What we know:
mainly alpha, Probable membrane transporter protein, transmembrane, membrane
Amino acid sequence: MDVYLPIANLSVNGLIIVGLGAITGLLSGIFGVGGGFLTTPLMIFYGIPPTVAAASAASQVTGASVSGVFAHTRRGGVDYQMGAVMVAGGIIGTGIGALLFNLLAQLGQIDTVINILYVLLLGSIGGLMAKESIQSIRAERSGVSMAAKKRRHHPMVASLPMRWRFYRSGLYISPLAPLLLGIGTGILTMLMGIGGGFILVPAMLYILGMSANVVVGTSLFQILFVTMATTMMHALTTHAIDIVLASLLLFGSVTGAQLGAQFAQKASPVKLRLVLAIIVLVVAARMALGLGYRPDDIYTMAPL
């Protein structure tokens, strides 16, 4: 089933695009991550231009985050005060990211930068996840439980001025910390099309020191609004969002997420984390390889 993507300016097999969305949705349901950090690389591997892949993936993450926010809201798992500060930072970061995106596009380096960022980010995150998972499996087999990490904000966060009380998160810290975290996530979302949950959740736990029962819900709350802002920014400035591509991806991801959630209830969480780490590292290695070998078509034509 061939489908023409007007912004990407190419024809693709619609079932394959739906399948790619289903894969990321499946991973989202199994591992509890947004899946955006794998959606863009998979589309690039299939031949979608990196700029269009990143912009369209961001709009897909917006749709996928809505149901998650509602679910966590019903159980009181969202710190709206913390989320509002991070959303404000994310919107600022989106504006900065748009300037960087346009600058790199004018220099003709945006595709290369997107690939390099993915290699660095996926490689580091995958390595840390693999290390932690292997340690957990070894401890599980030996019968010795790992010491639980203390929930305490980073010393740099404690040194920031103008503290606020975030009651639902159980924190008394400066709002500058979540604001800066939101800015960094907004820049990455604009450049890479990721939701940022796989960066936000560890940062909120081990840098901000937030309570674990509100981390995921607050992260999804921030992701929802920042990806909305990213989608609007791409639509107004880069014009790189392909609505046909985003719709196909969203259809597949919603279906895959339901299947993944059912599977996750039956599998070991520790082993699932190890599998996810391996997938992330394989994708990072494939993207690093793509940066090194010479393509068949050295030159490509892009619409003005």
